[in-house]
Write a structure and sequence with these properties.
With 223 residues, this protein is an alpha/beta fold. The protein has two domains: 4-58; 103-220, Zincin-like. Helix content is 41%, strand content 23%. It contains six helices and ten strands; from the N terminus they run βββααββββαβββααα. The strands form three sheets. Strands 4-5-7-6 form a four-stranded mixed β-sheet, covered by helices on one side. It has a three-stranded mixed β-sheet with strand order 1-3-2. A three-stranded mixed β-sheet has the order 8-10-9, covered by helices on one side. A hairpin with a 3-residue loop joins β6 (87-90) and β7 (94-99). α3 crosses α4 and α4 crosses α5. The chain binds zinc ion (ZN).
């Protein structure tokens, strides 16, 4: 098994599996041999993690000609055409990607750029509508958009709400839930009972949306 070793001041050994890479984090004091032995012992666990992750990776949406992808609760077909300038437009049933050389990386980056702009429009509007409804417009200081790895949204004590713009490919109820979740943090900056009570008052089916994100969210990471 191929793995990368990262030494540090840490006290214990840990294995991090992120398909297709395996990383072993180790203290300076552990010998190469001990380390190898540890990885051997955990090899079945590592293999099974890699397998699950590679399966999930394969479920990611792909931005290629004629593929159908979800967008705000609908589906749209990807169409690619040669043009002198890079441009992305959308109509009722398709998203048209244009450019001089559309290899897979370029298609994806053009699409992502477009998606981020859509998210900025849509999520800003929704966030303001909800803070207005709750009478907490003053609590919100800024809205940021970032493709974060670990979570879909975030809210700081300074009143900055942050969204991962890939969420625009989720169903509408999930988009609603994410906005509700982050805006409710402007009132309760924790996951207390009161917080979930408020989320439930605004978005009664939040359990379902949470479940969707947990089970399907990985697909929105385009490949
Ligand atoms: Zn939260």
């Amino acid at each position: 098994m191929v793995y990368k070793i990262v030494r540090s001041q840490r006290k214990t050994l840990a294995i991090h599996v992120r398909y297709p890479n395996v990383e072993v984090r180790a203290p300076y004091t552990i010998s190469e041999r001990q380390l190898h032995h540890f990885v051997q012992k955990k090899s079945a666990w590592i293999e099974s993690k890699l397998l699950i992750q590679s399966h999930k990776h394969g479920e990611r949406y792909q931005i290629s000609e004629n593929n159908i992808i979800p967008f705000m609760g609908n589906t749209k077909r990807i169409l690619c055409t040669k043009a002198t300038k890079n441009k992305v437009t959308a109509n009722e049933d398709s998203i048209i990607i244009q450019g001089p050389s559309l290899d897979s990386a370029k298609r994806r980056s053009l699409f992502e750029h477009w998606l981020k702009a859509q998210a900025q429009d849509e999520l800003t509007t929704r966030t303001h509508a909800l803070t207005h409804r709750l009478g907490i417009e003053n609590q919100l200081t800024d809205i940021k958009f970032r493709k974060t790895k670990s979570k879909w949204g975030h809210c700081t004590s300074q009143g900055i709400v942050q969204y991962n713009w890939l969420i625009l490919m989720a169903p509408r109820h999930v988009i609603d839930y994410l906005v509700t979740h982050e805006v409710c943090h402007l009132i309760h900056l924790n996951h207390s009972k009161q917080f979930w009570q408020l989320v439930g008052d605004i978005h009664p089916t939040y359990h379902e949306s949470k479940k969707w994100l947990k089970e399907q969210g990985h697909r929105l990471w385009l490949s």
